[in-house]
Amino acid sequence: MRLAARRSSIETPRDFAPVRAFARYARRVSLPKTCIVGAGSSGIAAAKVLSQRGLPFDCFEKSDRVGGNWVYRNKNGMSACYRWLHINTSRERMQFHDFPMPRDYPDFPSHAQIARYFEAYVDHFDVRRRITFESEVRRVARRDDGRFEVTVALDCYAASPRLETRTYEAVIVANGHHWDPRFPDPPFPGRFDGVVMHAHAYDTPDVFTGKRVVVLGMGNSAMDIAVEASYVAERVVICSRRGAWIVPKYMFGRPLDTIFVDPRVPFRIRRRIGEAMLAAMVGDLTRYGLPMPDHRFGSAHPTISGRILDRMTHGAITYRPNIAELSGDRIRFVDGTEERADVLVYATGYKVTFPFFEPGFVSAKDNDLPLFRRVFHPDIPGLFFVGLLQPLGAVMPLADAQSEWIAEHLRGEYALPSPREIAKDMERERAAMFERYVPSARHTMQVDFDEYLLELDEERARGRKRARA
Fold it and tell me: What is the domain extent for residue 277?
């Protein structure tokens, strides 16, 4: 009877409330603290999710505002944004699932509208106060006990920044991969006497006024720069190693990336549909003066442009194959033709770099960093990457889903597969990627937007079951 009475008295709400409060406190203080490197479009997604899930974190951003690559003339000098840039992924496919873009935005908003959207995002979810601005992460190192020491330069633009080292259980890398320009390696033989610039340095077409311009590359930036230059330059030539599939932004009156995107439809069928649609809407690329791609549609990142074909048909832009040699004020191409040029623009992509890691700790040689589902480092527990992938679509919704996955893991709600299963999964994923895409530093972390989200949902469900077990 006394035992029963004691149990009854313990379970009264008044006596049990402190126990419940202590349990909540214990869970809170035992959750791992995370450092988020960067507050671009991926970093703010991670900050929002960790804040919502009650996980302690610090987020450091080198600039004075959020948005990263989408901030025009960003203070940190890392943005590749140019004056007339618009997104090439539609608004519906780019927006975060829990924060739609304003309905008065166009289908393809400008960089200024996207930057305002990110500002509104961090204010809506009240995470701006959780971000430390003008703070550069200088060093991230792993201690023997598995935790990370992060050295940050606070007030990094001051004459004497204040260095501070903090300890974390986890690190989320969200520093982006479109800020460190990559030039042809090895360089082309010879010397060019004109202006040489990378697409990353491009701002407005004024620099091309009255000039003879050669643009190397067939990606979105190369096409945009060539088109903008064609309105002010004396002559514009675009050249490349191989051809690319040119995809219009609209088809049947709708943004193209909203059509035939169901990941449950096998890729081979979606490829055939895409090829048929391009044949009907664009036709033979050689009629525009462009080379036919040496690969099937979907085997390389396509170029999305509604303007390049128009300028080609009006003779405003001329195509040449790859550069063979530089010779003073002339450029010779592999087909033997030559062009006199004043400006040479390398739209040759970016290097994936992590300046805060020692190269022997983590690096991406040839832009290749194998990860479990593009998030978990297989050999370093507690080290995660958000947005380090190249989707056929926008990064933002994927970064949000990745952040939710990381939060589940940090809270103990998701358990990883065994190391052997992780290695097998990574091998399968990489084999499929390298089989599908043409060999290139551009295709080392390529994913299909819808397939990736579907497979990530399935893996999270399996991991929740493992955690409960």
Answer: 183-348
**Could you report the per-residue pLDDT of 207-248, keeping only the tens digit for each?**
999 999 999 999 999 999 999 999 999 999 999 999 999 998
For residues 161 and 151, is the Cβ–Cβ distance under 8 A?
no
pTM (2 d.p.): 0.91
Give the integer Cα–Cα distance in Å for 228 and 220. 12
Record the tokens describing residue 395, joined without a space.
């990064």
Closest CA to 414 of 454, 456, 447: 456
| 121, 188: one domain | no
Length of the chain: 469
Cα distance between residue 204 and residue 206, in whole Å? 5
**What angle (nearest 5°) sits at the alpha carbon of residue 220, between those of residues 219 and 222?**
65
Number of domains in the chain: 2
Residue position matching structure tokens 């049947």: 252
Non-local CB neighbours of 44 within 8 Å, separated by 6+ positions: 66, 118, 121, 122, 127, 131
How far is C-alpha 459 from the geometric centre of its chain's CA atoms? 21
> Among the three residues 348, 365, 392, which one is the final residue of a domain in this structure?
348
- For residues 175 and 189, membership in a common domain is answered with no
**Coil, strand or helix: which one is 288?**
helix
**pLDDT higher than threshold 70 for residue 104:** yes
Residue 8, domain member (yes or no): no
Amino acid occupying residue 252: F
Give the CATH number of the domain where residue 107 resides. 3.50.50.60
Q: Which of 308, 331, 348 is the last residue of a domain?
A: 348
pLDDT of 68 higher than 80? yes
Whether pLDDT at 2 is above 50: no
Residue-level pLDDT at 335: 97
Count of CB atoms situated within 10 Å of the CB of 51: 18
